[in-house]
Amino acid sequence: MSIFRKILALGVAASLAVTPAIAQAVPVTVALDWTPNTNHIGLYVAQAKGFYEEAGLAVEILPYTDTSAGALVANRVADFGILGSIGLFTQRAAGADLVATYALVQTETGRLVFRADRDDIETPSDLDGKIYGGFGSAWESALIGTIIRHDGGTGEFETITLGTSAYEALANGAVDFTLEVYTWEGVKAERDGPAQRAFRYADFGVPDQHTNFIGTSAAYLAANADTARAFITASQAGYDYAVAHPDEATDILVAANADVLLDRDFVRASLQALIDGHYLKGENGAVGTIDRAKMEAMASFLFDAGILKDGDGVALASPPDVASAFTNAYLATTP
């Protein structure tokens, strides 16, 4: 039996243990954090291959909206959602009921990038005084400042908030550097240019992180433990299948989102980057497993930077409770 079938079997067993065979499929909704992309590929694979159906679930992947997936989950609009690591901690600090239940990637996918033809940028300290095309979060300032100071710089730079227009601004030289997700924007730059060079966060004093998760609320887990286990294990099987069958998984993602007009070759290249970099499946074979040490390190980094604030906007006086922020209890155990 293949690994993904073993994963799925555990999810099915859990659902059948509490659900009569004649019962209707249990509805589950999932909110995306962005328009459909390769970070979401395991969800679409699990749906197309019937993994959710076999687990007794009727899963609906909700259309992306401007409202964060974390807000949709915390306010019971969606059962599960794709949560960014930083958003998980900041929203929890402000009182949101959120729990990470599956690590979409096993290591950081983000990086600081600049054009390869910039001879004046060799190390992070060279970024002092330069222009950053940003996205408007406090995390960015803490991240970039740490990277520059770790290399001996002052950490002083100018920020222009541009959102996704930052990538065009970088390409045409309007800004000196920005941040990107290597497995999406980075792959696009490799294919279409201009050529880039990059600094990896963890090489310059920033903790490695999972970047994003599938998450839900503690309230949902308490009321729907078996459904949650069936959904997470079926999703785990979907991601494992995508790694083992990248061509088929690519076709599934593209076909399921025909209205988005995804470039099939680009999606395939992005998925290969996720596979080659051991993002979706760690070098140790982990699929979905959340590393407590990474969670603790990032929580400490955000707390020390003063980014974690309560519902009144006041910085937390003590580090957050990391243990309640995540769980691996709903994952299947695989060889």
Automatic annotation (TrEMBL):
Transmembrane segments: none
Taxonomic classification: Bacteria, Pseudomonadati, Pseudomonadota, Alphaproteobacteria, Hyphomicrobiales
Self-association state and partner proteins as the record states: Homodimer.
Entry annotated with the keyword Membrane: no
Involved pathway(s): Cofactor biosynthesis; thiamine diphosphate biosynthesis
Pfam families reported in the protein's UniProt record: NMT1 (PF09084)
Positions of the SsuA/THI5-like domain: 37-249
Protein role: Responsible for the formation of the pyrimidine heterocycle in the thiamine biosynthesis pathway. Catalyzes the formation of hydroxymethylpyrimidine phosphate (HMP-P) from histidine and pyridoxal phosphate (PLP). The protein uses PLP and the active site histidine to form HMP-P, generating an inactive enzyme. The enzyme can only undergo a single turnover, which suggests it is a suicide enzyme.
Family assignment from sequence similarity: Belongs to the NMT1/THI5 family.
Species of provenance: Devosia subaequoris
Signal peptide start-end: 1-23
Catalysed transformations (reactions): N(6)-(pyridoxal phosphate)-L-lysyl-[4-amino-5-hydroxymethyl-2-methylpyrimidine phosphate synthase] + L-histidyl-[4-amino-5-hydroxymethyl-2-methylpyrimidine phosphate synthase] + 2 Fe(3+) + 4 H2O = L-lysyl-[4-amino-5-hydroxymethyl-2-methylpyrimidine phosphate synthase] + (2S)-2-amino-5-hydroxy-4-oxopentanoyl-[4-amino-5-hydroxymethyl-2-methylpyrimidine phosphate synthase] + 4-amino-2-methyl-5-(phosphooxymethyl)pyrimidine + 3-oxopropanoate + 2 Fe(2+) + 2 H(+)
Alphabetical GO biological process terms: thiamine biosynthetic process
UniProt KW Metal-binding keyword: yes
Record's protein name: Thiamine pyrimidine synthase
Top-rank taxon, per record: Bacteria
GO molecular function: metal ion binding; transferase activity
